[in-house]
Amino acid sequence: AAKENLNLNESEKAKETMEVLGREFDTLLNGLKDKVLSSGIEKAVLSTRLVGSPCALVASQYGRSGNMERIMKSQAYAKAGGADTNVQKKILELNPFHPLVKELNTLYKADPESETAKDLAHSLSDTALLRS
Question: How many CB atoms within 10 Å of residue 62?
Answer without folding.
Answer: 7
